[in-house]
Amino acid sequence: MDKNNITKEYSNGEITIVWQSGKCAHSGNCVRNLSSVFRPKEQPWINVSGASSEEIRAAVSKCPSGALSIRDIE
After folding, report:
1. For the chain, domain boundaries
2. What is the reported pTM?
3. pLDDT at residue 1 greater than cutoff 70
4. What share of the chain is helix, strand, coil (3-state, %, to 5)?
5. Which of left, alpha, beta for 17 (phi over 0: left; psi -120 to 50: alpha)?
6. What are phi and psi of 72, to 5 degrees?
7. Which of 40, 37, 39, 5 is nearest to 23 (CA)?
8. Cα–Cα distance for residue pair 71/25, rounded to 1 Å
9. Phi, psi (deg, nearest 5) at residue 70
10. How many whole angstroms from its chain centre is CA 31?
């Protein structure tokens, strides 16, 4: 496993946040836009229950590198 290119998924039952570490530019947009969900000093660093799906979707859409994405759960 390549430690520099890890993909992790975090789900709240409605949506899944997909994080690809190899794409992350560490811009901090996610933390600044939604610190209740994106908490880099905690494990796991994404707390998908920290905000509504709509708030999470809006914050993820501001990720400049594409490291964060959303997948809807059917």
Report:
1. 7-72
2. 0.90
3. no
4. 25, 25, 50
5. beta
6. -75, 145
7. 5
8. 21
9. -120, 140
10. 9
Rounded-to-integer distance, Cα 58 and Cα 66, Å: 13
Distance CA 10, CA 45 (A): 10
Does domain 7-72 fall under CATH 3.30.70.20? My reply is: yes
In this predicted model, what pLDDT tens digit does every residue of 19-70 receive, in sequence order? Answer: 999 999 999 999 999 999 999 999 999 999 999 999 999 999 999 999 999 9
Single-letter code of the amino acid located at 47: N
Q: Is the pLDDT of residue 74 over 80?
A: no
* Residue among 25, 13, 10 at smallest CA distance from 62: 25
Angle at 12 between CA 7 and CA 66, to 5 degrees: 35
HSE of 32, CA atoms in CB hemisphere, 13 A: 6
